[in-house]
Design brief:
The complex is a heterodimer. Chain A is an alpha/beta fold. Helix content of chain A is 39%, strand content 29%. Chain A is built from 10 helices and 10 strands. In chain A, the strands form 2 sheets. Chain A has a 6-stranded mixed beta sheet, with helices on both faces. In chain A, helix 3 (96-103) runs parallel beside helix 6 (138-150). Chain A is globular, with a radius of gyration of 17 Å. Chain B is mainly α. Chain B has one domain. In chain B, strand 2 and strand 3 (134-137) form a beta hairpin. In chain B, helix 1 packs parallel to helix 5 (138-160), helix 2 (39-57) packs across helix 8 (184-210) and helix 9 (217-232) packs parallel to helix 11. The mean pLDDT of chain B is 89.
């Protein structure tokens, strides 16, 4: 399988502080990979580094063999990386429809069909299509944020903690949708909810204190209670 | 009653001019977080270019188009070469835009001289109507109409077009707009230049109203526009419209009943709004 996204020895910083010290990760086309770790380990910073929302100091990041280090964020997105931030990044002053339209690179037949199929995944959004985003619940905002990343033909979707702060019943819905998405798309999922990560991902990487310390098949991690306890705090 | 109607028309006309200046300023502040002091000089450039072209061609339309075109290009120049280098650094923005204000205002004096240029109203707007004993100045009604048309145009642009959606999204989350594959910097330039052109249009329309344009008119009107932005709510287009009408009407009334208090009233209103509703009377367009 060809490597879609490859990060090697990545070091990145915010202000005066180095957050990532040595992150190595490789995702192949069609894979769903969970990036796991405790709070403050550097998972969110790594996704931001991929989007050049946080600057890379050292190391290399390649998308299908092309370096994306230092490339402006909007160009990285146009290269085919969809990004769903931790705080949803929904535009409150716009309706659901407008949020999706802003995200569309083209409004051709193909894109509109894709929007229809995305809305089939999230019927809640279909019902409230003309509603202002400011009126949406946390779960609906997350659904909208994920939908925005799916309206274009992206090569990979980066999703940051989709289950954070949501009710169990909403998490269940999201897990179902993400599982469906990961069948067709390449996904890098940052997640603290281990059950959710297991439901969606095939592979995992663990980050601890800004370094990737372990990786492998998610089924193996599900069996390895010691590793779960050591790096994820799962009892 | 007659005087009341006259004051309302005067106030609305003044409000329309203020709106042209303040709406661009407000959106630039809201979207780009830029405290922009170049608006005053763009205002007078609009006025001087209009007078220059109108005098040469005797065409009101050509004069307006030239004023809008020149100030739009000045806006592109200011944003690309100066303002874009100081995003996120408010003290540097104030210094650099104040510097541009001083330089380009002096440039006006260098090109057209320090003496104010006089200009009449175009023939087709030079008359008055008399309705039931009330004298209505055609040019003031024209200004109100332009204000309404521009407000309606901006409203349509912001709310019914994809450009508007991106601008509104960018006001809230420029980083997220970038992460969706949109080069928000191009929109920043467009918005800055659009705001500059509106200021230029304001200056071009102001000159025939008062019969002249002086190089000192920029800062005075800039301060009024800032008051409108604070009163209306930063980044709020509707706030700018409401704030402009409010200040225009208030200014018109005070100029009649207590002319000595004109400046005090404007600043006083701003102080009251800041004390009791810091987000502006009409609230912020979006939460930052």
């Amino acid at each position: 399988m060809s490597s879609l996204l490859k990060a090697s020895n990545v070091e990145s910083y915010i202000g005066l502080y180095t957050i990532l010290h040595d992150v190595n990760l490789e995702i192949n086309k069609g894979e769903a990979v969970a990036l796991l770790g405790r709070n403050g380990a550097g998972k969110t910073t790594f996704l931001k580094t991929l989007m050049n929302l946080v600057s890379t100091r050292k190391g290399s990041i390649e998308l299908e063999g092309r370096s994306i280090v230092g490339v402006p964020t909007h160009k990285i997105a146009k290269m085919g990386i969809g990004y769903v931030p931790e705080d949803y990044g929904v535009f409150d002053a716009l309706t659901i429809e407008e949020n999706l339209r802003v995200a569309m690179w083209k409004e051709d037949k193909e894109t509109l069909e894709r929007v229809d199929s995305v809305l089939d995944l999230f019927p809640d959004l279909k019902v409230a299509y003309k509603r202002m985003a400011s009126t949406l619940s946390g779960g609906q905002r997350q659904m909208l944020s994920i939908s925005r990343a799916l309206v274009n033909e992206n090569r990979i979707i980066l999703i940051d903690e989709p289950s954070k702060g949501l009710a169990p019943v909403v998490i269940e819905k999201l897990a179902h949708a993400l599982k469906a998405i990961s069948k067709d798309a390449t996904v890098l999922l940052v997640e603290q909810n281990f059950a959710m990560a297991c439901a969606v991902a095939d592979k995992y990487y663990i980050i601890s204190e800004g370094r990737t310390v372990n990786n492998g098949d998610i089924k193996d991690l599900m069996q390895n209670k010691e590793l779960q306890h050591k790096h994820l705090g799962v009892m | 009653m007659d005087i009341f109607i006259t004051l309302v028309i005067n106030g609305l006309a003044q409000g329309a001019l203020l709106f042209l200046l303040a709406s661009g300023l407000s959106i630039i502040l809201g979207l780009m977080g830029v405290v922009n002091f170049t608006h005053g000089t763009l205002f007078i450039w609009g006025g001087y270019v209009y007078i220059w072209i109108f005098t040469l061609t005797d065409s009101f339309l050509l004069g307006i188009l030239a004023a809008v075109g020149v100030t739009f290009l000045m806006g592109v120049f200011f944003e690309k070469f100066f303002v874009s280098r100081v995003y996120g650094n408010v003290p540097a923005q104030i210094l650099i835009t104040l510097g541009l204000q001083v330089i380009f205002t002096d440039l006006v004096r260098l090109i057209w001289g320090a003496t104010p240029l006089t200009i009449g109203r175009p023939d087709f707007l030079a008359d008055t109507w008399i309705v039931g004993g009330i004298v209505i100045v055609q040019y003031r009604v024209f200004l109100i109409a332009v204000g309404v048309i521009v407000a309606f145009g901006i409203h349509l642009l912001l709310n019914k077009t994809k450009i508007g959606m991106i601008v509104r999204a960018g006001v809230q989350r420029p980083d997220m707009v970038r992460a969706l594959g949109i080069n928000i910097n191009t929109y920043f330039t467009f918005v800055f230049a659009g705001g500059a052109a509106l200021a230029g249009l304001g200056g071009a329309l102001y000159a025939p109203l008062v019969g002249s344009m002086a190089s000192t008119a920029g800062m005075h009107n800039q301060v009024l526009a800032f008051i409108v932005v604070v009163v209306g709510g930063m980044g709020s287009f509707m706030g700018s419209a409401g704030g402009s009408v409010l200040l225009g009407l208030m200014g018109s009334g005070i100029a009649w009943f207590a002319p000595g208090f004109a400046s005090v009233a404007n600043v006083g209103l701003m102080a009251i709004v800041l004390a009791f509703k810091p987000s502006g009377l009409f609230g912020l367009a979006v939460k930052k």
